DNA sequence: TTTGATATTTTTTTT
DNA sequence: AAATATCAAA
């Protein structure tokens, strides 16, 4: 195998095949290349059979890419390597073994909307107020527990206080409902695989023997459950290679535990450790900026990436009047650069999906092609979810969650009242909705409704029969025809229904693609649904030409010649929610680091003087992350501007929207602007960090030294200006 | 039961 | 601004 193009550390990482290995791979240090070569090296030089190699990646797209790149290095056999995400691997394992845990092998996988409806059902049944108990936080609670491998019983035992106890009980109900439906949520995939391994040692041993060489990419973003899973699998051979960069840990909110990578050497004292600090991606200016920003994090092992590339152009700072102006400025720069670069080389990164709108609008107006990652996801569209629910019900009629979604879609006169009765029956007897329908005559449902239910029942049974000998595409067509779904849309003939039909058409290209690779069989529908449940946003990035739009989170692992980072304002990025929590602020800064290090040649940093948020105009200070970049690396905005500048001097585009004054005057005639130091009668000294709203309801965000941030009405707050 | 109208809430980030 | 929840009328 030719390793002549590798540096010394990279070679060592590839050739250290036996025993535990920790690769600390900085951004752009050729980590993917090392991983692919290592796998190829194992097969070619060490003659390890492909099926004994496991490689876990963060996204399905990364998995596909890794498989392709290994294929390019070796003659054949790459298709036998296990390359997948944690979740996809667990689905595969559970699919053939979950019956040990009492679930059906044909289990379905819940998406977040399904989870929400399960939780809401539980709240309703327990007569709890949905406003007091936000389903979101309950789902978060359950997810946290599962990621920590805490079962409902243990959660209840360890609960402290009323809320903990209550949520543990809800967790218990939730888990029971899922079990009854043979449904798993994302976290279950990991947790139940571990449970399976602990319960059935022979199954564990089988996989331990199979996975003799294990690789885990993005190890800094694994959670506790994933960590345990890897530990179990690697226990026999201890050939475990993890790759990660603690500076790029950005998924704490999802349970990622950075100590997994920091303590790797404690778990495996014999581990070899290799650091890759040579960056091959970014120009020196970009790298210097990234190093300077991340250097502000205190909780980290110091390290600095090196590059042999020259300085390159300076980073470019852009200030616009509003988010619309920001979009226009981005477009202007894209057009300037489009002579030397392809649109594919450019990406716009933002903190929240909602920020994509203004950018999209500007791109559409200028006829610039773009592709968006995430956002309103294709598979989240109503018609797609409806269709998927039909498929789920056909595959597993006892999937109540899917069943409830389609029971009255299209409208067939089976309303909430009837559904309640069916569910009520289920609570007493343990029957699913599907089973309850067969009893519907005896449980107080009107004759009228019973007939309708029977019709539905017959139609579904009929579809189920058909599904056994049809391709998925054919089945989709049958479902759309038999249910009258397509008819309904065609009859409506509105702009919206047209687009829905287009989306369904688009879905058929997905199924056709799937049918091409899969033979018709009993398992076909199940395989299709499993695959679908695991597709992630990042998987959608394809070859079509265009500027890429995505969140900074979604950009991890990718690189582009030109990067635009937008919305660099306090309260946007860093997000308002974390501004005063040092720990979370450090995670936010790592996110900035990830964003910065995506760029190879050019980097644009953009902010707007004010922008619309929740339908209100807000004015925010420039992001601290901007200020952390040494000014000599940046051109554009005068780098050393301690506070935003008054009035219209930054309306770069004369066609831009009229700028609102960011100086406001209160009832006593005192005027304030962002950055002013003020004195409050009760809270003491503070600094104005933002201005919200319009007219009489204008509010000031003020950071007080004593009490942190407060939002006060400009007209009534007892404020005096200092200095 | 379904529908349309009005009130209320919501945004981090995601496999 | 947009999505969701709640309420009133048909």
Can you characterise this structure?
The chain is an alpha/beta fold and 723 residues long. The protein folds into 5 domains: 176 residues, Rossmann fold (3-Layer(aba) Sandwich); 74 residues, Arc Repressor Mutant, subunit A, CATH 1.10.10.160; 178 residues, Rossmann fold (3-Layer(aba) Sandwich), CATH 3.40.50; 157 residues, PCRA, domain 4; 46 residues. It contains 27 helices and 26 strands. The strands form 6 sheets. A 7-stranded parallel β-sheet has the order 13-14-12-15-16-11-19. The radius of gyration is 28 Å and the shape is globular. The N and C termini lie far apart (70 Å). About 3% of the residues have low confidence. It binds a DNA duplex (15 and 10 nucleotides) through helix 4, helix 9 and helix 19.
Residue share in helix:
40-55%
CATH-assigned homologous superfamily of the largest domain: P-loop containing nucleotide triphosphate hydrolases
* CATH architecture descriptor name of the largest domain: 3-Layer(aba) Sandwich
What's the CATH class of the largest domain, please? Alpha Beta
Helix/strand class:
alpha/beta
Computed over alpha carbons, the radius of gyration is 28 Å
Low-confidence stretches: 638-661
How would you sum up the major sheet?
A: 7 strands, parallel
Q: Order of strands side by side in the largest beta sheet?
A: 13-14-12-15-16-11-19
Beta-strand fraction estimate: 15-25%
- What form results from the Cα inertia axes? globular
In the CATH hierarchy, the third-tier topology of the largest domain is known as Rossmann fold
**Mean of all residue-level pLDDT scores:** 86
Overall structural domain count? 5
Number of distinct helices: 27
Number of beta-strand segments? 26
How widely separated are the two ends? 70 Å
């Amino acid at each position: 195998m030719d390793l002549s193009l590798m540096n010394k550390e990279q070679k060592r990482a590839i050739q250290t095949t036996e025993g535990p290995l920790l690769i600390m791979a900085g951004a752009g240090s050729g980590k993917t290349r090392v991983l692919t070569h290592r796998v190829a090296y194992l097969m070619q030089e060490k003659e390890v059979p492909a099926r004994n190699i496991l490689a876990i990646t963060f996204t399905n797209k990364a998995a596909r890419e890794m498989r392709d790149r290994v294929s390019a290095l070796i003659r054949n056999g790459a298709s036998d390597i296990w390359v997948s995400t944690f979740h996809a691997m667990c689905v595969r394992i559970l699919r053939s073994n979950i019956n040990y845990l009492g679930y059906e092998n044909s289990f379905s996988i819940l998406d977040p909307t399904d989870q929400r409806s399960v939780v809401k059902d539980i709240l309703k049944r327990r007569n709890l107020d949905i406003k007091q108990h936000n389903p979101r936080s309950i789902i978060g609670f359950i997810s946290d527990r599962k990621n920590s491998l805490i079962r409902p019983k243990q959660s209840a035992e360890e609960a402290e206080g009323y809320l903990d106890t209550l949520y543990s009980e809800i967790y218990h109900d939730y888990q029971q409902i899922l079990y009854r439906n043979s449904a798993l949520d994302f976290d279950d995939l990991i947790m139940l695989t571990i449970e399976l391994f602990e319960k059935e040692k022979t199954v564990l041993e089988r996989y331990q023997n199979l996975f003799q060489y294990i690789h885990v990419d993005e190890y800094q973003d694994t959670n506790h459950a994933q960590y345990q899973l890897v530990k179990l699998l690697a226990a026999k051979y201890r050939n475990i290679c993890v790759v990660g960069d603690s500076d790029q840990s950005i998924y704490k909110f999802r349970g990622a535990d950075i100590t997994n990578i920091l303590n790797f050497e404690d778990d495996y004292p014999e581990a070899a450790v290799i650091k890759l600090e040579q960056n091959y991606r970014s120009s020196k200016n970009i790298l210097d900026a990234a190093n300077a920003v991340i250097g502000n994090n205190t909780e980290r092992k110091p390290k600095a990436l090196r590059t042999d590339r020259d300085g390159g152009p300076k980073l470019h700072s852009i200030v616009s009047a509003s988010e619309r102006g920001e979009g226009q400025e981005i477009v202007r720069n894209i057009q300037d650069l489009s002579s030397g670069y392809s649109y594919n080389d450019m990406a716009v990164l933002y903190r929240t999906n909602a920020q994509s709108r203004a950018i999209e609008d500007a791109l559409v107006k200028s006829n610039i092609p773009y592709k968006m990652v995430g956002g309103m996801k294709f598979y989240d569209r109503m018609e797609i979810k409806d269709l998927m629910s039909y498929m789920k019900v056909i595959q597993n009629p006892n999937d109540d969650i899917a069943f409830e979604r389609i029971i009255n879609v299209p409208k067939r006169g089976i309303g909430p009242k009837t559904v309640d009765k069916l569910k009520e029956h289920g609570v007493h007897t343990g029957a699913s909705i599907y089973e309850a329908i067969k009893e519907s005559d005896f449980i107080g449902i009107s004759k009228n409704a019973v007939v309708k239910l029977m019709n539905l029942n017959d139609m579904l049974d009929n579809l189920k029969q058909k599904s056994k000998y049809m391709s998925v595409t054919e089945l989709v067509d049958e479902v759309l025809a038999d249910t009258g779904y397509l008819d309904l849309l065609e009859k409506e003939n509105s702009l919206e229904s047209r687009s829905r039909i287009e989306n369904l058409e688009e879905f058929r290209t997905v199924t056709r693609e799937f049918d091409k690779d899969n033979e018709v069989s009993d398992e076909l529908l199940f395989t299709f649904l499993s695959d679908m449940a695991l597709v992630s946003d990042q998987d959608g990035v394809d070859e079509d030409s265009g500027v890429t739009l995505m969140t900074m989170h979604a950009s991890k692992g990718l690189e582009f010649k030109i990067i635009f980072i937008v919305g660099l304002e306090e309260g946007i990025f860093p997000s308002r929610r974390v501004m005063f929590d040092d720990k979370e602020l450090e995670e936010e800064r790592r996110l900035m680091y990830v964003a910065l290090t995506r760029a190879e040649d050019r980097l644009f940093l953009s902010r707007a003087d004010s922008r619309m948020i929740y339908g209100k105009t807000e004015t925010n200070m420039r992001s601290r992350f901007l200020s952390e970049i040494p000014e000599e690396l940046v051109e554009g905005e005068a780098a050393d501007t301690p506070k935003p500048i008054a009035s219209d001097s930054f309306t770069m585009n004369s066609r831009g929207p009229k700028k609102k004054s960011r100086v406001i005057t209160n009832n006593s005639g005192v005027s304030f602007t962002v950055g002013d130091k003020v004195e409050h009668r009760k809270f003491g000294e503070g600094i104005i960090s933002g201005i919200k709203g319009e007219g009489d309801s204008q509010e000031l965000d003020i950071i007080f030294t004593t009490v942190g941030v407060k939002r006060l009405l400009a007209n009534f707050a007892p404020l005096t200006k200092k200095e």
